[in-house]
TrEMBL record:
This is Aromatic ring-opening dioxygenase LigB. The keyword Oxidoreductase applies. InterPro entries: Extradiol_dOase_DODA, Xdiol_dOase_suB. The keyword Isomerase does not apply. Keywords: Dioxygenase, Metal-binding, Oxidoreductase, Zinc. Its cofactor is Zn(2+). It comes from Ramlibacter tataouinensis. Residues 33-251 form the Extradiol ring-cleavage dioxygenase class III enzyme subunit B domain.
Length: 266
């Protein structure tokens, strides 16, 4: 793997589906990251847009591009991300999950939802890297997300790039689609807390975010878009260096920060 013992894991804020056609500040930085990374054998993505009972893993050889959103510009519905699947790596993920008691199931029909293909459109724009998805159990909490990342962590040493795709802040009730200033700093305060937590490898804070983070319930009225963060953190080596990608703030309250856990070049 180009002199790296293991690939890093990444948390990506995927924001609105419009991120696919409006790269903003975050898109070029993800594209640059994709250039710096050793070529993965596959990408494994946890997205909040596939929530199931128990854990499922995609095993399709050619996953479809799912346009799982409504009311957006027509151009978004014409985008295809024709990355191949990787049944071999999916089988390995299923083995790791089963060995750790997750009782996973294979899913031959599931494609790639926008939590997967939208950020990957920037990271690997030519769709040349195989992609598999792991679902988010409906009863997952932050401690469980951390454990799920640790269960799948051996894949990082086998050429698989592990990605948690969510959003560092995600209160859709307060989104300003005209990008006007909402007149509040709560989202920025939560972002600052998250950056400090990942920079200091503060596992306890990341797990107990509802108590340790400012405005946690306002930044995340539901946990689904937060959980990919402890997932990606758990998939990394505990001593891994951390890179913060400052993606700025979109639509008033949707922060676009991403975090890379581990080295990106030899």
């Amino acid at each position: 793997m180009n002199q790296l013992d293991r690939l890093p894991s990444i948390f990506i804020s995927h924001g609105s589906p419009t991120f696919a056609i409006d790269a903003g500040r975050a898109g070029p930085q993800l594209a640059a990251l994709g250039q710096r990374l050793p070529r993965p054998a596959a990408v494994l993505v946890l997205s909040p847009h596939w929530i199931t009972r128990g854990v499922r893993v995609t095993t399709s050889t050619a996953p479809e591009t799912i346009h799982d959103f409504g009311g957006f510009p027509e151009a978004l519905y014409r985008i295809e991300y024709p990355a191949p699947g990787s049944p071999g790596h999916a089988t390995r993920a299923l083995e790791l999950l089963d060995a750790d008691g997750w009782q996973p199931a294979a899913d031959e029909r599931r494609g790639l939802d926008h939590g997967a293909w939208v950020p990957l459109l920037h990271l690997f724009p030519h769709a040349q890297v195989p992609v598999i998805q792991v679902s988010m159990p409906h009863d997952l909490d932050a401690a469980g997300a951390l454990r799920l990342g640790r269960t799948l962590a051996p894949l990082a040493g086998e050429g698989v790039l592990i990605v948690g795709s969510g959003s560092i802040t995600h209160n859709l009730r307060e989104v300003r689609w005209d990008n006007s200033d909402p007149g509040t700093s709560y989202a920025g305060e939560f972002v600052a807390w998250a950056r400090h937590a990942v920079d200091t490898h503060d596992e306890a804070a990341l797990v107990d975010y509802l108590q340790s983070a400012p405005h946690a319930r306002r930044a995340h009225p539901t946990p689904d878009h937060y959980l990919p963060l402890p997932f990606a953190f758990g998939a990394a080596d505990k001593a891994a260096p951390v890179q913060v990608i400052d993606g700025g703030m979109t639509f008033g309250v949707l922060a676009m920060d991403s975090y890379v856990f581990g080295a990106t070049a030899p």
